[in-house]
């Protein structure tokens, strides 16, 4: 009677570690990494967190999406470095002057810290997205009692970045096929992002509206809707949930205490 279960458990034991960790645990891991990056202001600590997030992503063999996501956000971080290096309100110490343009140490450190936080969020989110599928996440979250509407909102937020990246690639390929927006140097690649932003946002919003209409036509809002059960076997679900949730609460309380202490 117990042979099928023993065979199934044996197959689970030989799967990768990301396959036996439930989606909520992975989501809480990503959340805790992001909270850790916001609790510290030291640049070395932020770099260490980026390294930890990168190692976790590489161990899970899901680094390709992260590389594309980092490329997608590099222009934003580069812009932050320039703007904050020039116009940060607490700029005092001159670090370097290029053709009469002065960059200050305080602004560059602040922008570098914010850039590291963005990288941590991107790497942690990439880990969550590449190690779980949309259907697996939806089934598990509904199974643990989360509203299907909340599940849809959460999944839409988590998967909007790769969708925008895919749309941007299609738009750039269409422009290059028409002889527009040729990219030969790194500077030209950075400049090519700006004219893509407007059609990119419009296309992404249009796809979201289409998805919403399709789900309604399929009875997504039906009160008699029954959640499907996930066939995967996960290990130490409650222990992982409680431990990571407690860590998230501690980090949030710590950050609030740091913010509140400045006004005392």
UniProtKB/TrEMBL annotation:
Look up keyword Cell wall biogenesis/degradation and say if it applies.
no
One GO cellular component term noted in the UniProt record for this chain: plasma membrane
Keywords from the named record: Membrane, Transmembrane, Transmembrane helix
Alphabetized CDD domains for the sequence: EcfT
Does the keyword Coiled coil belong to this entry? Answer: no
Bilayer topology annotation: Multi-pass membrane protein
Pfam hit, one = CbiQ
TM region(s), chain numbering = 33-59, 65-87, 108-130, 150-168, 243-260
Location comes to:
Membrane
Q: Do you know which InterPro entries this protein is assigned to?
A: ABC/ECF_trnsptr_transmembrane (IPR003339)
- What sections of the sequence does the record tag as coiled-coil? none
**Which protein, by its recorded name, is this?**
Energy-coupling factor transport system permease protein
């Amino acid at each position: 009677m117990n042979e099928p279960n023993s065979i199934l458990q044996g197959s689970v034991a030989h799967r990768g570690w990301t396959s036996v960790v439930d989606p909520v645990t992975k989501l809480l891991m990503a959340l805790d990494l992001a909270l850790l990056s916001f609790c510290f202001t030291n640049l070395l600590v932020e770099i260490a967190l980026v390294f930890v997030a990168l190692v976790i992503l590489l161990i899970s063999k899901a680094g390709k999406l992260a590389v594309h996501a980092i490329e997608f956000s590099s222009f934003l971080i580069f812009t932050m470095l320039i703007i904050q290096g020039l116009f940060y309100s607490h700029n005092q110490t001159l670090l370097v002057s290029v053709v009469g343009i002065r960059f200050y140490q305080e602004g560059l450190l602040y922008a570098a810290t914010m850039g590291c936080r963005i990288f941590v969020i991107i790497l942690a989110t990439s880990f969550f997205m590449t190690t779980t599928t949309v259907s697996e996440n939806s089934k598990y979250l509904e199974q643990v009692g989360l509203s299907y509407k909340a599940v849809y909102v959460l999944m839409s937020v988590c998967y909007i970045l790769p969708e925008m990246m895919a749309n941007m690639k299609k738009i750039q390929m269409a422009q290059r096929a028409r002889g527009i927006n040729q990219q030969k140097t790194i500077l030209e690649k950075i400049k090519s992002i700006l004219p893509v932003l407007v059609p990119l946002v419009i296309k992404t919003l249009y796809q979201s509206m289409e998805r919403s209409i399709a789900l309604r036509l399929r009875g997504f809002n039906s009160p008699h809707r029954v959640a499907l059960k996930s066939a995967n076997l996960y290990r130490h679900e409650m222990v992982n949930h409680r431990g990571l949730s407690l860590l998230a609460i501690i980090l949030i309380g710590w950050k609030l205490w740091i913010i509140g202490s400045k006004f005392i």
